[in-house]
Amino acid sequence: MSLFGLGSRSQKTFRPKKGSPSGSKGVQLKKHIDATLGTGNLREAVKLPIGEDLNEWLAVNTVDFFNQVNILYATLTEFCTPSTCPTMTAGPEYEYRWADGVTIKKPLVVSAPQYVEYLMDWIEAQLDNEAIFPQKFGVPFPTNFQDVVKTILKRLFRVYAHIYLSHFQKVVSLKEEAHLNTCFKHFVLFTTEFGLIEKVELAPLEEIIESILQR
After folding, report:
1. What's the pTM?
2. What is the maximum span of the chain, computed from C-alpha positions, in angstroms?
3. Distance between CA 209 and CA 18 in Å, rounded?
4. pLDDT tens per residue across span 196-210
């Protein structure tokens, strides 16, 4: 029996969970996240713990959000295909094109699953790059670290937007909507707490986000 229906996942799309960065400090912060999430108070769970470094907190949570989206999308790979989703969209008004600025500099129109695959490969490369996400305690973060985090989270939001606006009925039929909603609420509260995604980027799910923030 597989967690969240992962038995039918695409091995290429699904990746093993990433561990916490920054050595023992990252592990300590991960334990703090798990403990505070367990209380059910997501607003408190996203706040920077007293005395902790902001970049350390952003790093550990970014890995967590990558893992969450990775697992959520993996449950839908059977239904999100090049034929069902020939472009990466968030409803009829928003289309996302892929570019990483290095190997692909001109934005490409690609299918949703191809976009997600490019995205997960790109994020994984950032997380594995110790010049960006240091693995050893005491190694400084780069000066552009928060910009990298903002780009990662902005692009992860696009996967949430595609899931909600293209596959939500399938999520409901799989009885995973509560898990999806909890993960997204955590994501929204965290990115809002630290101003990590510009409001214009959140427009596709504006009503859902407003509902989350008003509760």
Report:
1. 0.85
2. 50
3. 27
4. 999 999 999 999 999
